[in-house]
Predict the structure.
Amino acid sequence: MELADVSYAQRERLAFIDFCLQFVGKIARADLVNHFQTGLASCSRDLTMYKELAPQNLTLLHQTKQYYRTPQFHPLFDHDPEVILTSMCRGLSFGLSKDIEPSANCIDSTRLIHPKSDVIATIMRAINNRQAILCRYVSLSSGESERELVPHSIANNGQRWHIRAFDQETQEFRDFVCTRILDITEIDGSIDETYTSEYDKAWQNIIAVKLVVHPSINHPKAVELDFGIGENGVLLLEVREALLGYLMRQWNVDCTQGASLSSGEHHLWLSNIDELAGLGCLNIAPGYKI
């Protein structure tokens, strides 16, 4: 049987199997049952059909009753990086990845290049299975080097996708831009518990942020409408410490003590900056000084 001969509904289920193997590394019949609300017999047929179409992609481990991705895996479906990353952020990480047909009268902003699908897949499998990765990483400051990283999250910082990971070289949690990762492979074996997100203090620490319209703006209502600021004039946000600097830079928030930056470029001011003094994550924020 060819994939083109399969009904659309079954292709959706096969794409889900393909996605789970590629981005999680495993799948069980229960995953199909829970996701598509179908019977066990139907799920068994889907898994059998997938194995007929791509016998080299998966192997069954009877002890766990789960199918696992093999080293020879080659995806049956083209999982577009933008669709996958957006879907994962929304909790919809499944199904067929189709090219987005551009609108003639609704134009989005130009975006940077997305990381390659196989890079995302390896990162996501490492995160889901708590494994380390080995890669070559090209840094702006130190150039190209080999890195052993333990990723625990993937995030969009407003400009590019990066992973939050424990770096074996520096022995600390850092951010690594996904598009700068080359020759990535998973490292078999368990990781030290202290390399997981639970021990990443900057990731676990939630910061209360108070944003107001820049004091020197003459018509604040325009900015209030842009950012959905309520009648009290304060936009309250809760942000992970590790991501706070990125948000302030993305929104171009004035992070000086006295709102001294130009309101022509900075429409918001971080009004509780005094409470956040000393946070290293704000070093990249507009106007911030320790």
Remarks:
- Helices lie at 8-24, 29-36, 40-53, 81-89, 117-129, 201-204, 220-227, 241-250.
- The radius of gyration is 23 Å.
